Amino acid sequence: MPSRRKHKAQKPRGRSAFLWFGLAVALAAGAGAWWLYRAPKKSAQPNVQANVAANAVSMDARTNQENAEAFFAWITNHTDAAELLNMGTTFLEQGRLGESILCYLRAIELKPEDEEARFNVGLAYSRAGRLAEAERSYREALKLFPEYVEAHMNLGNVLTRQKRYSEAIEEFTSALKLAPENASAHNNLGRALAEQGIPGEALAHFSEAARLDPNYVEARFNLGSTYLGLGRTNEAIAAFQETLRLRPNFAPAVQVLAHLQRSR
User: Fold this and answer.
1) Cβ 264 vs Cβ 252: under 8 Å
2) For residue 29, which phi and psi values (nearest 5 degrees)?
3) How far apart are the first and last CA of the chain?
4) Which one of 4, 86, 93, 197 has the lowest number of neighbouring Cβ atoms within 10 Å?
5) Side-chain half-sphere CA neighbours of 241 within 13 A
6) Using the 8-state DSSP alphabet, how is residue 38 labeled?
7) How far is 237 from 227, CA to CA, in rounded Å?
8) What is the pTM of this model?
9) d(CA 18, CA 101)
10) Could you give the CA distance from residue 53 to residue 233 in angstroms, rounded to a whole number?
11) What does the radius of gyration of the chain's CA atoms come to, in whole angstroms?
């Protein structure tokens, strides 16, 4: 479902989700091993002054004390919520997470019912590794707008990073109820199900993600990983080969195929 408003930070799809990919560790599975590709590690009315100390430590290293004080003075007196959202997004894209968070918090002070600002600060918190605050922010956005697909997705990703897989599954399922053809939601739900030890259901969602988006490299790789975990080696090899057809230098697929060749 499209967003209701503008001025939103860009939200990566689950495939970079989450924000995010690294090679999963090999998991023991019978006589062999299987691999899963997953993302590596965005008060009711926050007060900027109360958050200065918490966020100052994450301000850009190039920001000296004098500039920091000027920034805090400016943001405290600024009253244009839309401009603050846009500035927060600019800082977010630059990796200046402390400044980004403060811009979004000030926007929330000015417009407490704006789900966009709460979503965006959740994204910034997530990138900063502040998962409890990210979770709270996404939940607050969902209270204001329960049909916010991206918030369900990002909340699910945050929960997955905390290994709270059953809760993550609920969020991805909610996203799919609202957007059943969202390939990223299928892939992310598949990852959570696989981590929860439900490979059969995970396989169905990876397959659907690959069907909906034939160029979805990570979903294709996860499909191969799940086939391998189920002992369906030939289907796994075919999926990994398709992964490499789509992206020839995709290191996880190169490594797992090399592993399979050495094992034969």
Assistant:
1) no
2) -150, 90
3) 47
4) 197
5) 8
6) B
7) 9
8) 0.78
9) 19
10) 54
11) 20
List, in sequence order, the alpha helices (H) in 78-127.
81-93, 97-110, 115-127
Could you tell me if residue 27 is left (phi over 0), alpha (psi between -120 and 50 degrees) or otherwise beta? beta
The pair of three-digit structure tokens given for residue 67, joined into one six-digit string: 């500039």
Please enumerate in sequence order all residues whose Cβ is within 8 A of that of 221, keeping only pairs 6 or more positions apart, or say none. Answer: 37, 239, 240, 243, 250, 252, 253
Supply the mean pLDDT for the chain.
81
* 28 pLDDT higher than 60: no
CA distance 116 to 165: 26
Task: Label residue 197 left, alpha or beta by phi (over 0 means left) and psi (-120 to 50 means alpha).
Answer: left
Residue 18 Cα distances to 42, 66, 110, 154, angstroms? 9, 36, 28, 6
Exposed, middle or buried: residue 255 (CB in 10 Å: 0-12, 13-18, 19+)? middle
d(CA 246, CA 153): 25
CATH class of 10-42+136-264: mainly alpha
Cα distances (Å, whole numbers) of residue 12 to 17, 186, 264: 6, 15, 38
**188: which 2 tokens?**
């992310």
The residue that leads in pLDDT, 13 or 210, is 210
Domain ranges of the chain: 10-42+136-264, 45-111
Question: DSSP character for 23?
Answer: P
Helix (H, G, I), strand (E, B) or coil at 125: helix
Question: Which pLDDT belongs to residue 61?
Answer: 43
> How far is residue 132 from each of residues 30, 60, 139, 245, measured CA to CA in Å?
36, 22, 11, 39
